[in-house]
Prior knowledge:
The complex is a heterodimer.
Chain A: E1 3-7, E2 13-17, H1 24-30, E3 50-53, H2 66-72, E4 83-85, E5 98-101
Parallel strand pairs in A: 1-5
Antiparallel strand pairs in A: 1-2, 3-4, 3-5
Chain B: E1 19-20, H1 27-31, H2 34-43, E2 47-49, E3 54-57, H3 60-67, E4 73-74, H4 103-114, H5 117-141, E5 143-145, H6 146-163, H7 173-183, H8 189-196, H9 199-208, H10 219-228, H11 237-247, H12 250-265, H13 267-275, H14 280-291, E6 296-301, E7 305-307, E8 310-312, E9 317-321, H15 322-325, H16 360-377, E10 378-383, E11 388-390, E12 397-400, E13 402-407
Parallel strand pairs in B: 1-2, 3-9
Antiparallel strand pairs in B: 2-3, 4-6, 5-13, 6-9, 7-8, 10-13, 11-12
Helix pairs in contact in B: 5-6, 5-16, 6-12, 7-8, 10-11, 12-13, 12-14, 12-16, 13-16, 14-16
Amino acid sequence: MPSIIYIHPDGRGETVEADSGASAMITALTHGVEGIVGECGGNAMCATCHVYVDEGWFDRLPPRSDDEDALLDGTAAERWPSSRLSCQIKITPELDGLVLRLPDRQT
Amino acid sequence: MSAPNSPVSTGADAAGIPHLDIDPFAIDFFDNPYPTHERLRDSAPVVYLDKWNVFGVARYAEVHAVLNDPLTFCSSRGVGLSDFKKEKPWRPPSLILEADPPAHTRTRAVLSKVLSPAAMKRIRDHFAAAAEAKIDELLQRRQIDAIADLAEAYPLSVFPDAMGLRPEGREHLLPYAGVVFNAFGPPNELRQTAIERSAPHQAYVAAQCQRGNLAPGGFGAAVHAFAESGEIAPDEAPLLVRSLLSAGLDTTVNGIGAAVYCLARFPEALVRLRHEPSLARNAFEEAVRFESPVQTFFRTSSREVEISGTRIGEGEKILMFLGAANRDPRRWDDPDRYDITRKTSGHVGFGAGIHMCVGQLVARLEGEVVLAALARKVAGIEITGPVKRRYNNTLRGLESLPVTLMPA
């Protein structure tokens, strides 16, 4: 199982084992990682599963869709170049060790 | 006829699944749907309702599965009982709700952009200020009807302006929405009466959808702007505005009504919310799960299909019990408890998949700012008179909720 490391705004890291094929949003919710809301349940409509992808990992993810790009303009925390919606990041074995930083707020 | 080893359920012949004598559009059902929801869930993953000759799914897993397979379980034949392939719709079909991909994809994209997170940022401060002002005003009066004076009055004070509607004629908005949501139901008295009386409301809405009647800067004008840029045809814009007028008001009225009714019935939730006003948004979301203001929608099978071992033939109507799925103990811990700290993600109160409520962000914004204002200003909500239910084939909510507001 690939491990995903979520880093909270206070610097605390949380490592969880993800199911391949699950999204990084669902993985966080399943493991009780605070800081991911996912109000729309993963339908790419709400922008409350915002994450900053750690340097080195961003380019290894499939690119954002136009829809995701537009949604990121509405995130509660500041949008950075590394911003993604975690519901759109599908976990695969190649993403073992992925590091995602959580913003200070989602709504 | 069905082959012996692969029985195909076709309408009233539906074999091998429980046939239930339940009318989920009857007044006594509306008064207390929960025991019946439990019976629906516990009978089987798929049931057949003889009263209206439809299949039903009430467990979370099956409701979620049907919502997420929009090509098999199509919307273009209507999301009410009426099959548009067999019956003329009571109004021209919606270009988004009652459409399938690929036609749906384009219209959906337009409304998603009009109601995007970025668009919400622009209206947020105004919506929040209006909620504060409304609660201040109601605290002066103390004794109010939480439905008319808050659940209806607040959305009416912000949404029509956000749409860009003219001031005149807004009294048609709630009756029109009432017709729309009654019309998804079967041809019972609720539906027939609503449609018979709908002409003036339809005329108002049709006129308001025209570009000239929509103020610049509003959601309505924003929809029409997409016609100018060519993403939709000019004659599609009014119908997409109609979708916002159909589904943008009564739903939030019932959502806010549900939340206030929860806080009035469960004072410990209000205490918790007052301690932590940042829970306001989740307290609203949990109220949407708990009460499910939109109780049901139908789909139509576009081909023979199997759901959890039950084969369903082509052209069958399937009734999804969203409210029952949102309280399915197979999915939710302690489902009959209103818990404002619950992880609500995944509830189907707004639907799921490609047809999931396109206005969900407006609903959440309205719910959050009203509950946040209550959390800061109101110490108690006491029910002081008879609670009256409002009956609608699709919407669950109250007609009247007399309460006294205690100032903080």
